[in-house]
Amino acid sequence: MLNQDIVREATRLTRAGQLVKATALLQRMLQGGRALRPESRSASQARLPRLDPLTIDATADVVEERKAPQIAPARSAQGRRHSLPLDGMRDFSGLGLRSPIKRAPLSPSDIVPEGTRFIAGTFSNAAGSRTYKLFIPSRCQGQRLPLIVMLHGCTQSPDDFAAGTRMNFLAEEQNCFVVYPEQPSGANQAKCWNWFRTGDQRRGGGEPSMIAGITRQIMRDHVIDPKRVYVAGLSAGGAAAAIMGATYSDLYAAVGIHSGLACGAASDLPSAFVAMRQGGGSRAIADGITSVPTIVFHGDRDTTVHPKNGDQIIEQSAGATRPTTKVLRGRVPHGHAYTRTVLIDGAGRAISEHWNIDGAGHAWSGGSPAGSYTDPQGPDATREMLRFFLEHSLGG
Q1: pTM (2 decimals)?
Q2: Which GO cellular component terms, listed alphabetically, does the Swiss-Prot or TrEMBL entry include (predicted)?
Q3: Which of 24, 43, 174, 263 is most buried, by the most CB atoms less than 10 A from its CB?
C-alpha cells in the first residue's frame, strides 16, 4: 500500500514549487519510509538531502567487460567508456541524476560513417525552439527515403545518442535519414524530455508539437517517404516516443521504445516516481489511443524503470485488437538471453514486439561503448528496431 499521507504532501509541495522537498518525500515512500506527522514535518524536511528537481530518468546499470571481469568499470579506462557505474537508486536520486563520468571525446568515426553528413538545424513554433542533428545517408539521390526520429535519454546529446545506438551506421546500410531532436537544459535541468507533464502529452502543444514540427520540417526540406516515418527513444526519450505514437499516429508508422513508459503513465512528479518504480497507473492503458505498431526493449533487471512498464506499452499498442501471440527465445553469443514476444493481428501482421532481456539493466541493448547508457552484450536493439520499422508503413 502506498502511503497516502506522503503522496498528498508531495503533491502539495510540488504545486507550491518545492520540488526538492517533494522529491525527497517520494524517495522515502518508495524506500519504505513512514508518513511524516504534521507536528514533525518541518524538522524532518530540514534533514532531507539536496536534490536536483525534475530529472525523470536514471542511469544504466554497470556493464562489465568480459575480457577483464575483475576490473570494476569505475576504475578502468575501458569502464569509463561503458555505462555509468551507478547501481539503481542507491547512489543517486531518480530525480537528481549525477553528471556522467568523463569519457574520451567522441570522434566523427564514432558517430557517422565516412562519406555521410550529420548537420545541425533548428525548429521553432509557439511552444518554443529546439535544435537537432540530421543524418543524411550517402545514397540519397532523389528517391523518397524513410526517416527515423531518435529521442535521447537524460544527460545525453544527439552526438552521444548516435554514437551509443549506432543508428546512423545502420541507417546508411538501409538508406534512411535519421534526426535527433535535442532537449536543452533550460527545458529540463538534466536534458530529459518531460514525459510526465500533462502539457507535454498532448497533440498540438508542448514538446510533442516541437518534435512533430522537427519531423515535418525534415519532410519538407528533404525527399522523405511520408508513409515511412518512425520515432524511437531511450528511457525519458522512450516515454516521449510513446507519447508521439499515441498523439501523432497519422505521422509515425511505428514506434520503438527502449526502457521507457507508456503514454499517460504519469501526470505529475509523484505519479512519475510511482510509475518508474512500480509501473504506470490506469491512464497508462488509456482508452481512445490509436494503436501504432510498437517494438519494446526492456531489461528484466532495470531498477530505474520497472519492467512492468514494457508490458503496459505493449498492452496500450494492442488497443482493442485480439492478437495471437508467438514467443521466441534466444541468446546472444557470450551475451544476454532474451524472450521475444510477437503479437500478430488477424491479417497475419506483427503489430508489436516485446524483447525482454535477461539480466539487463537500464541501458541500450547491443549499443556501442562509445556512447553512454549502453549494454554491448546485446541483443542489437538498433538493428531490430530498424528491421521492425521498415516492415511497417502508414496505411500498409
Answers
A1: 0.80
A2: extracellular region
A3: 263
